[in-house]
Design goal:
Blueprint (H helix, E strand, L loop, with lengths): L2 H33 L1 H24 L5 H18 L2 H5 L4 H20 L3 H8 L2 H12 L1 H6 L2 H17 L2 H5 L3 H22 L11 H24 L7 H37 L10 H7 L11
Helix pairs in contact: 2-3, 2-6, 3-5, 5-11, 5-13, 6-7, 9-11, 9-12, 12-13
Length: 304
């Protein structure tokens, strides 16, 4: 074989190698995009539903704040990423990924959604009869018990202790139904707890700030103790090194969200104290509570 033929074959081989590399890169890129499809299929309809309600009610009533819509979209994405998409897939084999999802689904996501005031938006969107039924449910005794800070804290932190100190964590990875129920509980309990500590939507069952502060501190302490316990005694079926990284993420990441909750709680207390020392303006009812008193439940939004 002469030198020219050697050059031709070498060049051809190099070309095929480049083509194979390009095809492989395109395959990985397509696979990466496809991994986000379940996340988008879950999050986008919920985001569009919220944004549609905000737009529709703004045409008939007081304009819905844009920052609440932004908080809702980010909160929906945070919660949806814990149950669908790459993070949800990784959480099946990694305790660290699972714990990151827990922080999004049970702590940060609920906080963002609470401040998006979904109940207020729902009251503005429903017809009169349905709005009356919803306000009746909010006034009911079961709603008062369920939304009480002590009950919400027990459901939230107590559920986590039950999940990680029993066989429930291992069992949830072998049953799709149990896996879904656990994630639903983590979100619902996190939302109830956050809403009971930082009430944004109108509610006839609000408790005093002192009680909420005591419950909040106790819940934060129980969450921190659980993360330390998991560092020393990882859940069954988890790698020790992975479990310790996840426990540290739970501890420090939880502290970050807890600090945000404390700052918001103190800010609301500061504003409430300022309103108490400000002379009241006659004939100016509170807009948030007025929603529950009105027939339609559409007169305004609760100020925070």
């Amino acid at each position: 074989m002469n030198r020219a033929n050697v050059f031709v074959y070498a060049h051809a081989g190099h070309g095929h190698g480049a083509d194979a590399s390009a095809v492989e890169s395109a395959h990985h890129a397509a696979h990466g995009v496809a991994a986000f499809v379940p996340l988008m299929l879950l999050a986008l309809p919920l985001m569009l539903l919220y944004l549609g309600a905000a737009f529709w009610t703004s045409r008939r009533y007081k304009r819905w704040p844009a920052y609440r819509s932004l908080l809702a979209c980010v909160g929906i994405l945070a919660c949806a990423s814990a149950v669908a998409g790459p993070l949800a897939q990784a959480s099946h084999g990694s305790f660290t990924a699972h714990m990151f999802g827990h922080l999004l689904l049970g702590m940060l996501g609920p906080l963002l959604l609470v401040y998006s005031a979904p109940i207020t938006l729902l009251l503005r969107s429903l017809p009169r009869r349905s709005a009356r039924m919803l306000t009746g449910l909010l006034r009911s005794r079961p709603a008062a018990v369920l939304t009480h800070p002590v009950t919400a804290a027990l459901l939230n932190v107590g559920g986590l202790w039950l999940l990680y100190t029993t066989d429930l964590y291992a069992a949830m990875h072998t049953s799709a139904m149990l896996h879904m129920l656990v994630h639903f509980h983590v979100f619902a309990a996190g939302y109830l707890f956050t809403a009971s500590i930082l009430p944004v939507d109108p509610s006839p069952h609000r408790t005093g700030m002192k009680l909420r502060a005591c419950v909040m501190i106790a819940a934060f302490a129980a969450h921190g103790i659980l993360s330390k316990f998991l560092y020393a005694s990882p859940p069954l079926g988890t790698d020790i090194a992975d479990a310790r990284v996840g426990a540290q993420l739970m501890y420090y990441g939880g502290d970050g969200v807890d600090l945000l909750l404390i700052l918001l709680f103190c800010y609301r207390g500061y504003r409430a104290a300022g309103r108490q020392h400000t002379p009241s303006t006659p004939n100016r009812p509170d807009e948030g509570n007025r929603i529950l008193r009105s027939e339609k439940g559409k007169e305004g939004i609760h100020s925070t």
